[in-house]
Amino acid sequence: MKTGNIFRGIFITTAIFFIMGTAILTAQDKYELKSPNGISFSEVRGYEGWKVVAPSYRTDKNEIRFILGNDTIIKAYREGIPENGVPFPDGSILVKIAYSERKSPDFPAAIEPDVLQRVELMIKDAKKFKNTNGWGYARFVYNAKTNTFKPYGNDASFEQECNVCHTIVKGRDFVFTKYPQR
Ligand code: HEC
Questions:
Q1: Ligand 1, atom 16, residue with closest C-alpha
Q2: Binning pLDDT at 50, 70 and 90, where does residue 3 land?
Q3: Could you give the CA distance from residue 117 to residue 90 in angstroms, rounded to a whole number?
Q4: Residue 96 and residue 54: Cα distance in Å, rounded?
Q5: Before 82, cis peptide (omega within 30)?
Q6: Ligand 1 mean position to 3 CA, how many Å?
Q7: Is 169 within 8 Å of 116 (Cβ atoms)?
Q8: Which of 31, 41, 43, 106 has the fewest CB atoms within 10 Å, i.e. is most exposed?
Q9: CA atoms 159, 50, 176, 128: torsion sign
Q10: Dihedral pair phi/psi, residue 94, rounded to 5°
């Protein structure tokens, strides 16, 4: 091998390692993010694999959503909460993942999730979150261009926005989503 080729080889290898290193360093760890009210994204670590409570669809936003629950809330739903008048137990967590929609490229009559929009969560702790009727709220907005999340809200007061609308379903312990038969 000529010395020139060796140097070129070393240069290219170094460049590749540099690019890979930069990509690794700039990749966001979403679980390090914190909502302005102090709730960390890591409170729902592993939600990607949680059980489905139900899907939903917003006709005014053309969004498909999955509502997922941790084991505590899935057990509570199966016991008949909140229809039986019992509030969800502390430690119950709900996660809502919203997507824009598109026609299936394989079968246009079918609609499927397109781009991730945001991840929202609700954590039940009657004492800790008593200012928002026992639920802690957080929203993380996704930016597909940069593949990063950003916490929603300029300060902690954003959670009253969540709380006010969820008061529509006060009689269901502030939770809209029902657990359908399966
Ligand atoms: C204008 C009304 C409104 C506001 C404001 C609102 N929500 Fe909701 N939320 C809903 C409705 C309706 C649903 C039912 C499912 C759906 O629409 O996809 C829901 C569902 C949810 C769910 C799934 C559990 C459930 O109750 O069904 C979570 C988690 C959630 N919202 C979090 C939030 C957070 C966090 C905020 C504030 C940053 C917020 N919501 C603000 C109306 C609202």
A1: 56
A2: low
A3: 28
A4: 10
A5: yes
A6: 64
A7: no
A8: 106
A9: negative
A10: -120, 140
Distance CA(53)–CA(73), nearest Å, equals: 9
Query: Which of 97, 152, 169, 176, when mutated, tests ligand 1's pocket best, judged by the most ligand atoms within 8 Å of its CB?
Result: 176
- Please state, in angstroms and rounded to a whole number, the distance separating the CA atoms of residues 143 and 150: 8
For residue 94, with 0-12 CB atoms within 10 Å meaning exposed, 13-18 middle and 19 or more buried, which class applies?
buried
Residue 127: both structure tokens together: 């004492």
Q: Residue 74: which of 98, 52, 47 has the closest Cα?
A: 52
Asked whether 76 and 67 are in contact (CB, 8 A), the reply is no
> How far is 175 from 120, CA to CA, in rounded Å?
13
Two structure tokens written together for 157: 């007061």
**Of all atoms in ligand 1, which is nearest to the CA of residue 161?**
5
114-130: pLDDT as tens digits: 999 999 999 999 999 99
The token pair that represents 109 in the structure block: 């009559």
Q: Which residues contact 117 (CB under 8 A, 6 or more apart)?
A: 63, 98, 99, 100, 141, 142
pLDDT in tens, 38-82: 999 999 999 999 999 999 999 999 999 999 999 999 999 999 999
Cβ neighbors of 176 (< 8 A, separation 6 or more) are 166, 168, 169
* 67 in contact with ligand 1, CB cutoff 6 A: yes
